[in-house]
Amino acid sequence: MTHLVHLTNARLATGDRLVSGDLWCDPEAGVFVPPPNPASPASAIDLQNRIVAPGFLDLQINGAYGFDFSEDPAGEHAGISYTERYGDVRRKLIATGTTSFLPTMTSQLPDRYHQNLPFLGPSNSRDPYDGTESLGAHCEGPFFAHNRMGVHLPHAIHASGSTSEPKRVFETYGASNLVDSDLLSVEKEPGSIPSHVRMITIAPERPGGLETIRQLSQKGIIMSIGHMAANYQQARAGIDAGATMITHLYNQMNGHHHREPGPLGMLGGASDVDSQNEAKNLKQSGNSDAINRPYFGIIADGNHVHPASVRLAYLTHPEGLVLVTDALLLLGGEDGTIDWLTRRLTKKGISVKLEGTDIIAGSCVTLLQCLNNFRRWTGVSIPVALQAVTSRPATVLGLAHIKGTLQPGADADFVVLREESVPGQSTSDLAVDQVWKFGVKVFDESAT
Amino acid sequence: MTHLVHLTNARLATGDRLVSGDLWCDPEAGVFVPPPNPASPASAIDLQNRIVAPGFLDLQINGAYGFDFSEDPAGEHAGISYTERYGDVRRKLIATGTTSFLPTMTSQLPDRYHQNLPFLGPSNSRDPYDGTESLGAHCEGPFFAHNRMGVHLPHAIHASGSTSEPKRVFETYGASNLVDSDLLSVEKEPGSIPSHVRMITIAPERPGGLETIRQLSQKGIIMSIGHMAANYQQARAGIDAGATMITHLYNQMNGHHHREPGPLGMLGGASDVDSQNEAKNLKQSGNSDAINRPYFGIIADGNHVHPASVRLAYLTHPEGLVLVTDALLLLGGEDGTIDWLTRRLTKKGISVKLEGTDIIAGSCVTLLQCLNNFRRWTGVSIPVALQAVTSRPATVLGLAHIKGTLQPGADADFVVLREESVPGQSTSDLAVDQVWKFGVKVFDESAT
Description:
Chains A, B: InterPro entries: Amidohydro_3 (IPR013108), GlcNAc_6-P_deAcase (IPR003764), Metal-dep_hydrolase_composite (IPR011059), Metal_Hydrolase (IPR032466). Chains A, B: One of its GO terms (molecular function) is metal ion binding. Chains A, B: The active site is at residue 326. The structure is a homodimer. Chain A is an alpha/beta fold. Helix content of chain A is 21%, strand content 26%. Chain A is built from 11 helices and 23 strands. The longest helix of chain A has 12 residues, at 82-93. The first copy, chain A, is globular. The model of chain A is unreliable at 181-191 and 273-290 (pLDDT under 50). Chains A and B meet through helix 8 and helix 9 of A and helix 8 and helix 9 of B.
């Protein structure tokens, strides 16, 4: 009989509430279990009214602790292999509460995708000590609008051409990275076709983009629109074709104008009559809330987006907001300037800019910091804020039954949080006390 | 004993619901009354399940049926006086369902305010046959940003200078039009100081603007910010100083940028930390919803603002949205081109543009048309949509106890509406069957 772990005296983040109660998990199977027969052997752990939340899930993170997921696996790093470095980063990252992620590659030439994606696919390991679990890679680029590259490698985006025909997209990433990769099953449903790549960010307005979105979304890959020049109608066409998300809303896309609302305009849904004096895109529903409202990532680091803009997006579509870090290898590093790809980046606090400029080059915040910012800026409750880093990203991936939840049967990935009051601030901050992966405690603040 | 009017078999727009029930009003007192003693004499009218809503209230309308509220009262109009013409317009307008309004003057030189405002103040009449009742004038301008004039008279705005010092504002409108005008009492509360002017639109960023907002809002005048160059912080300063509304949100103001959210950014409220990495404007509340969220007018004519932008604003702050027409004298007129002030305007359908250009010069829609557009674009229920033209504008004016409600004691201004299905459209449109003012039926579609 398995020795269960019994957590008592906890406040469990469940839906939009904190529910006082107990939680059981089975460290052998790595899952939460229903309340067992009282006679079952169990180690009881008193959490002293602390908060238990599902482990955090980051859908967009480019690297951390000096490691860039897009770096050359054949590169020289003091004799330490890409695999070892990748493992090391995941074991560090899990201590921040992020128990799963989509390791994200910036825009690269095809060879780099062919080399790196097999490393970055679903972890296919239930060893709790392997660190943050990959649920598959996120390919952010290179099929972008040429005027919305951000700091991605221009030559990689130029090499992608100006179209996004399915054939070119398959060749760029490598078809075997996209489908039929039967070695790496993280989904438990029969019929799902996992692959190394779980998510792709693509500009929908490039020729062939909608067909690519259609084909890949049908194969189970999560398509997100971003780094785009799309206007409102072009962005909506991307969502109508099967994309379900907007990559880092506001950044690297058209802004809002009251008569050309751009991608932001989609957050309110659609309606019967969306154009002036004529009925385009007729929808047979009177309720805009039900129609094609995309999820959207937000980088709530305090640099990328103004707090008022975070509130605007959140209040327009509360069930759509997903916090992402978009963190670079500078996350967890010291302030200073480093070489990165063909650029030089300067980190100062939470800010990362191209050296000598005011151009934002990415973030170096943890998902926990984003969560605390989000709470401060919106005033939403702790459990509602937690949804943006737990159940909602899991839902985006179609994994809400096994990730981002404390329900029996789901993977027992969770964090124990304490509340810390901050002078001059009406909301408390959350801090990570413990991190558990597959029912095993892998980080304990009190032990550090 | 008064002979009461008893409306039966109606669906009453009450809060966010349509409630089947009866309604009584007293045509002598002009108010709704509680269900009377069954022995009271009453004329029963069967409304056959039609909708009864409070009469519509338009906070911003510049003219209609060929009459401009800002026109020269000494001007030549075939021997028909300003007073007669103004009365004629009000008797026509009430048939559209708008039982009360703020007749709105565009930017003018001081003399024009001194001449016209005494005509446009609160009607101070309870004669149901006087047409749409004025609740006081709305002075839209001339204290505007010089780059946000719209089609207002440039010389009037230039004459206002670049500041908005209280002394200059009082002189421009005439102090007697702003305060202590004890002849014209529409408020029933003791201590209120009504005046000819009930609302002023002002750009908050002009020097002296905040002090003017502070002084006039303390005197009971509703201050609305608009036609402004204000950034987010400057707009917020206007609201913090006492302004409670944004004039036609989106039009004639800075747009939204994700790092400089502009006036739109205020719709989500404020929070502890509204700037990057430092605590400015510290608010001691954890709930952004409670903090200084302004009401906002929206011109939902299908020209001024995209439906998606209306949804965005509505969903961000549902309790803030007020539909206004911003209608010109062309409302109710034929298509064609006319002289207006120093300009020429071309009306084509619902569109009014400067002759030969694509510059929107105003609207010529009724509040009912705006209401139907708003329903189509958002899919909200009939009673919820009605709030944006009834109880909410009444609340903006501090008159929710006497206008925009069917409660006993309130003025018995109401409309009887029928639902009309529209081919290819999932929501019905509303049409006006009857209009009642002070408990007397003044318009009946079936009689026309």
